[in-house]
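Hey,
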Amino acid sequence: MPDSATQVKVPTPVVAGNAVILTGGYPPGGRPIYAIRPGGSGELTPSALAWSTPNGAPYTGTPLVHQGIVYACTDNGILSAYDAKSGERIYRSRVSEAAAGFSASPVAASGRLYLTSEEGDIFVVKAGRTFELLATNRMGEIAMATPALSGNMLVIRTQGHLFAVGAGN
């Protein structure tokens, strides 16, 4: 086990209502998620913490806040959904038995979450309080980057290509 001076930590704050969600790396004892009330200073006190969970944080990906739910996908493909206000876990589910790694952050559009595996599969999950895998789209090559959204278009960068997938008018 690496000592604390060599651990990788990737703090990726996102705003969820009246809290800032922080995750990161692989600290000893788990991968916590913290929801911190803004406005404080100095050392983090219990009163500044809106909620927390001891594990479930992604290694590199940024959690997604969408319609009052915090979604976090771990590097091994476990997607967890938390109520943004209370921190109560809504569900935890493996995105796919076949996917080995997730480095990209999830994105959301049109009531769907898009999760990109390192193998180049784009998993489409219904946004909401119940896990439902809607589709798996195979890009055919390694994909490490988070997809971008522009209007009705999803832009996906793989190892050798740039794809733009859009909804017809």
